[in-house]
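Summary of Year 1 activities. Much of the first year was spent building the evaluation harness for sequence design. The harness presents a backbone, in tokenized form, and records the residue chosen at every position. We chose the following record to illustrate the format because it has been used consistently in internal testing since the harness was completed.
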């Protein structure tokens, strides 16, 4: 397994800390905070460099893929519908965690939903994705962006968590760890929202194409056809949530909303 490595960041690494160096994406760090202090960055997971270097770790390809048009084409024209479905679970003024970057204008739109009183924290394990997301969120003074592995525990709880098309890209053990970490990071009464692939209806005309794409390019995606997202949560933790699932586009996509029960409810 790759080891965490020391980096001299040009951006805040820990978006969760209440440190003066952790600034809104739009504001330059003060001179004191800009002094390059070596910080442990999370290791790039083995599956990411083995399967997805071309998509996420190669800046030239990332620049091509990072447009709303390309993302919408990859999702067969469903990007806006799926974003709206996810965002409809959150409200202005909330503090929401987005545990992995998404190409296109996803983060800006989510920040707009949360409004000037709300806060969006975006994390990702890849430095180039974080740099690009910081630029995108420069116009959102309350947004924070930083490096973190979605599978690692967080040291705080959020009003909401929005996990968009991350689970299908990670192996099974990571699915378990990510679901646990994100549920743990949700406060009582808050929602963890997963939007991702699902098993399309057997008669779906795109089913053979998607199965081929998954076999060739996205080897961890087929599992979401076979397993409920709730089944990746430790049973005792899953019981602390109510679970609601809806499917879209003939079952090819799903939204799962886990709402954390408040004490005494
Ligand atoms: C959210 S997923 C895919 C989203 C969608 N395909 C899109 O349009 O971008 C892609 C991101 O997940 C990140 N990622 C993968 N594994 C991760 C992990 N364990 N923790 C945090 N980020 C991760 C990648 O670096 C990449 O930026």
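For this record, the design step produced the sequence shown next.
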């Amino acid at each position: 397994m790759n080891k965490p490595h020391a980096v001299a960041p040009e951006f805040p690494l820990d978006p969760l800390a209440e440190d003066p160096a952790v600034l809104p994406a739009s504001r330059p760090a003060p001179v004191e905070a800009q002094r390059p202090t070596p910080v442990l960055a999370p290791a790039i997971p083995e599956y990411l460099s083995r399967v997805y270097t071309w998509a996420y770790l190669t800046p030239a390809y990332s620049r091509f893929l990072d447009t709303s048009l390309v993302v919408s084409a990859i999702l067969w024209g469903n990007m806006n519908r799926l974003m709206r479905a996810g965002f409809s679970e959150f409200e202005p003024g909330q503090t929401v965690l987005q545990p992995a970057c998404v190409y296109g204008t996803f983060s800006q739109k989510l920040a707009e939903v949360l409004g000037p009183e709300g806060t969006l924290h975006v994390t990702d394990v890849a430095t180039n994705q974080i740099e690009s997301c910081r630029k995108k969120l420069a116009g959102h003074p309350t947004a924070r962006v930083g490096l973190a592995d979605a599978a690692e525990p967080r040291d705080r709880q959020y009003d909401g968590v929005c996990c968009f098309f991350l689970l299908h890209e990670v192996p099974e053990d990571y699915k378990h760890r990510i679901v646990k970490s994100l549920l743990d990071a949700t406060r009582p009464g808050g929602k963890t929202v997963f939007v991702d692939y699902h098993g399309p209806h057997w008669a779906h005309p795109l089913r053979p194409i998607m199965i081929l794409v998954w076999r060739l390019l996205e080897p961890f995606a087929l599992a979401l056809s076979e397993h409920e997202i709730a089944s990746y949560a430790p049973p005792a933790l899953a019981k602390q949530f109510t679970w609601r699932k809806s499917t879209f586009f003939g079952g090819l996509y799903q939204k799962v909303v886990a709402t954390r029960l408040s004490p005494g409810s």
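The pocket of S-adenosylmethionine is lined by residues 45, 48, 56, 71, 99-103, 124-126, 129, 149-151, 164-166, 169-170 (CB under 6 Å). Quantitative recovery figures across the full test set are reported in Table 2.
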